Amino acid sequence: MSELERPGAQQWVPPRPSLRNLREAVQGCRGCELHRDANHGVMGEGSLRSDLLVIGEQPGDQEDLQGRPFVGPAGKLLDQALEEAGIDPGRVFRTNVVKHFRHEGTRGKQRIHKSPSRWHVAACGPWLVAEVGLVRPRGVVILGATAGQALHGSAFRVGEARGLLRPWPGVPGETGTSHVPEWVLATTHPAAVLRSRRRAEDLAALVGDLRVAARALEGREVI
């Protein structure tokens, strides 16, 4: 697909975003080709009073079918980790850098996830900018390499950055953003924990990273 066929999402983002009109508008998004094989565009979900915004990669099989983020096994594990870290899952806004599910082939009845390309991430950037401006979180947690590279660039590596509070780098291509979070923290994606042969150890590390975010939200840890 050429760049001309990936115009980006900006023309579909409502000029005065609300959760409701963002969810409606993303269904018509043609910013890249991923909409062709997806059931739903999946916007973020949570309270607009959330101090914490969590950003993952893209919707999965269940998220695409239901039209909601983090409703599959990884989302359930995320809730568990948040609770263990002392963060109320009900006060967290969850979203992804890419709003349509990219997949290839099937395993049984489940479609197999395929990571989005940098073109897909860039095309979806205006949706994320709108969400950040709408939620206005104090802090942001990014889950995994794709979300990390979307914010920090291609040199980002989870292993080097995880658990560290950093200044908000912004979304590539954004201009005139209405809100700048106080900090951003990277950690592994819960889906990676589910795939791990050392699940208990990796879950404990995820919880440890989220505890840094919890302390930052309480003002007990700063950049």
Please write out the topology:
Elements: H1 19-26, E1 52-56, H2 61-66, H3 73-85, E2 92-96, E3 103-107, E4 110-113, H4 118-135, E5 139-143, H5 144-152, H6 158-161, E6 165-166, E7 183-187, H7 190-195, H8 199-217
Parallel strand pairs: 1-2, 1-5, 5-7
Antiparallel strand pairs: 3-4, 6-7
Helix pairs in contact: 3-8
Order of helices and strands: HEHHEEEHEHHEEHH
The strands making up the biggest β-sheet line up spatially as 2-1-5-7-6
Q: How many whole angstroms does the radius of gyration measure? A: 16 Å
Strand content: 5-15%
Low-confidence stretches: none
Shape: globular
What is the percent of helical residues? 25-40%
CATH H-level superfamily: Uracil-DNA glycosylase-like domain
What is this entry, summarized?
The chain is α/β, with parallel strands linked by helices and 223 residues long. It has 8 helices and 7 strands; from the N terminus they run H-E-H-H-E-E-E-H-E-H-H-E-E-H-H. The chain is globular, with a radius of gyration of 16 Å.
Structure description:
There is one protein chain. The strands form two sheets. The chain has a five-stranded mixed sheet, with helices on both faces. A two-stranded antiparallel sheet has the order 3-4. Helix 3 (73-85) packs across helix 8. The chain has helices at residues 19-26, 61-66, 73-85, 118-135, 144-152, 158-161, 190-195, 199-217, and strands at 52-56, 92-96, 103-107, 110-113, 139-143, 165-166, 183-187. A hairpin with a 2-residue loop joins strand 3 (103-107) and strand 4. The chain has 223 residues and is of the alpha/beta class. The chain has a single domain (7-217), classed as Uracil-DNA glycosylase-like domain (Uracil-DNA Glycosylase, subunit E, 3-Layer(aba) Sandwich), CATH 3.40.470.10. 42% of the residues are buried. The chain is built from eight helices and seven strands; from the N terminus they run H-E-H-H-E-E-E-H-E-H-H-E-E-H-H.
